[in-house]
Amino acid sequence: MIGKILGKTYVGIVMLFLYAPIMVLIALSFNASRSRVLWTGFTLKWYTALFHSNAIMKAFGTTMALAFLSAAIASVIGLLAALAIYSMKRRDYKIMLFFTNIPLLNADIVTGIALMLWFVRFLPLGFSSVLMAHITFNIPYVILCILPKLETMDIRQFEAARDLGANSAYAFTRIMIPDLIPGILAGFFMAVTMSMDDFVITYFTKGAGVNTLSTLIYGEIRKGIKPEMYALSSVLFLLVLIILIVVNLLTGSEYKNSERR
Amino acid sequence: MSKKLIELKNISKSFGSTLVLDELNLYIRENEFVTLLGPSGCGKTTILRIIGGFETPDVGSVFFDGEDITKLPPNQRQLNTVFQKYALFSHMTVADNIAFGLRIKKKSSSYIEEKIKYALDLVNLPGYENRMPDSLSGGQQQRIAIARAIVNEPKVLLLDEPLGALDLKLRQEMQYELIRLKNELGITFIYVTHDQEEALTMSDTIVVMNQGYIQQIGTPESIYNEPTNAFVADFIGESNIIDGIMLKDRLVQIGGVSFECVDTGFGINEPVDVVIRPEDVELKDPEGGMTTGTVTSIIFKGVHYEIQVESAIGINFMVQTTQNFPIGCHVGISVIPDNFQIMHKPQSEDEEIMSAEDYSAGNAV
Amino acid sequence: MNRKKIQVLSIPYVIWIIGFTVIPLLFVFAKAVTSPQGAFTAGNLIAIFDPVHRKALFLSIELAFISSILCILISYPVALILRSSKIRNKKIILFVMILPMWMNFILRILAIQMLISKNGLINHFLSLLGLGKISIINTEAAIIIGMVYDYLPYMLLPVLNCVLAIPDDIIEASKDLGANRFTVLTKILIPLSLSGIGSGITMVFVPSMTEFVIANILGGGKIMLLGNVIEQEFSVTMNWNLGSGLSVTLMIFVLLTTLISGRTVSETDKGFVI
Predict the structure, then answer these.
(1) What CATH code is carried by the domain that includes residue B118?
(2) Which of C177, C184, C195 should we substitute to test contact with B (largest number of B Cβ atoms within 10 Å)?
(3) What is the pTM of this model?
(4) What ipTM was reported for this prediction?
(5) How many CB pairs (< 8 A) connect A and C?
(6) Per-residue pLDDT tens for A190-243?
(7) H or E element in which residue B350 lies
(8) Calpha distance B86→B141 (Å, rounded)
């Protein structure tokens, strides 16, 4: 009995450690005073300030454009690659997975530097260089979301469709793709969050003038944080939370489908 | 008769709001091969887990060799379990798996080595010491699980549907193997299964269970030949279970026709269940039978034919015979008085439960 | 569709790999073995033995090691407690525990900085209680706190997944054979969850070792990890060749870590949980 209580307390403390900092951040975004420790009343003024700040709104736009654009391009390239990799023989399969794993396993700082060294040869650093960098680290996530779905997919349904007279293109688009949609969406949203979360690679490939929310906050921290940043943090947190819930609802409904099957 | 080794007294157990065992009493004698038999959810595995120490009963006590072990954790009980899915330690070699219990008991390494060799010989897998469990077939894994349990020289071996995951042929082989092991080791086996054939083949005693209650306890022969109620009759082998009326002692009426039987002690005109085993129904010329019927289907089953006969008294009989009767054939049907099993009809679920309690309380194993 | 036709679909990705993974890395290697004037030199690689760089490398490894150990020590009991608890939907708890992993990385450091800074909330509470202030901001301890906070979910996820996946009957079998709780832990649970701990280490140790942002913010820019040195070579000193040389060294250590922890990060370990 005592063990049970101790256990719950321990898990509670770990939860507190994980969540308290974020909660404090959110609480401060509604604090009327600039103080980081004194609560002087509820306000939404930091949020209004947030939406009136050109720099922040611009960075927000850049972040979102980057996230969705890079995720979309990565999803297309990744889906095609996953299909191809799935059909490869063992040796080629392993080679492809090895290269897919490089951006995942390599230190972000090295990936960032490497891309920067390459980009400066032919491209002024800016939005397009950051976009290409984000696509680069997003493709592996897409592939690794889709490939397991392909591997657990019952290839016999494709054969059954062929047996029933569908040509391969028809069987592919009508039978295989609908089955893969949860995987593709999971990969897409994973890429979106990864892109929004990235700091290091953006930092090295962005050049002057372009800012994402991450790089903007980083710059602000060094200067001293303004309360608008807390408001921004809360908005970002909410945004990621929404994306996660959407993704889990999508993959959740997929489980229900598979049960029915 | 040898002494009682394990005794369960007044055991009740619920999971959430489901009552799994209700005031169950059972004892098991030394050196017996006892099988707990019943459909899934009947509580047989729960009994095994209570004996093994993995569940604590809500009410009641477990005695081992006269000692109350109800609260004793599994690692301190003198019995070992062979798990349904073998539960081999996948990160250890076969030898390390087998040595696990002995190392905990701090046995010498020469003793352990000897025991591993002995156990592997016993389960017919000599030389498998350094294999990993993953590299073994299901049947081999099962043998290792048995070896791992018996090296600890338990007084009782608990086996939880150990053959459930094996294919038919392997299952039959392992049945003989288990009987041999039991005789060589001279210890008590408590075996849980839902497979009546397994139970009939291996056991000294069978405990038939349903819905948390013991239905019948007895030798395989007595359970098969004299089931005490329709559930047992239906569960053990195939049966024709027919509504009847006990006119008086030794006379039962089925479909308006009276038949001689050997049962006594029922009330006058009491509704009863009449159980007739398919192999006890004789088919002959229409003139020679007690009633007549028409063959509606015949299936060849290898050793015998399984025949459905629509009888003149409006009852459909299942018959097993080595003779071939074509569909549409007009036949006579007869059953000798010994082969009518007469059973009380349960009036309600409660009554069925009451009668089951009587068996569990009264019957000796 | 036959195999050959399907494999054509990988062409865009192969081009992308060559253009944005292979060539950039070759550029790092090329820079690493040349001087700013373009002559071949091993100096940028040997530079790691320079006392300043060597110190930064050792500090990086030390802090990454401490953070990894702390993450294991925090995660494993959580896994054991959840395993033994009767809660039905453990997946939900797991999801809630790793949710902060999806929070913006910079924000999480910002939150920690706010708590532990000199005039931060913790010190405020301590002074309210009449206790002295702690000054951990701008120390190695602060960096470790930041690393543990940032990367703990990466340890929790694989460790919890692994421990919760161990079948009950394995544990029961070992108890049946006489094992007490301690033996069950040391002989069964820990050996069977080594793969989870292994991928947890990879996912905590590698980013901690290559870290420069946490050290910049929580270390006050005074504590130099190898990541900080490299970053400075690129953004302040502008010696890209030296920076590349140190990057190659860092890559070698990353590779060694991955090999030692014996496995690569599998996709399921970082995937969505529910």
Answers:
(1) 3.40.50.300
(2) C177
(3) 0.81
(4) 0.85
(5) 232
(6) 899 889 889 999 999 998 889 998 999 888 877 777 788 888 888 888 888 888
(7) helix B349-362
(8) 7
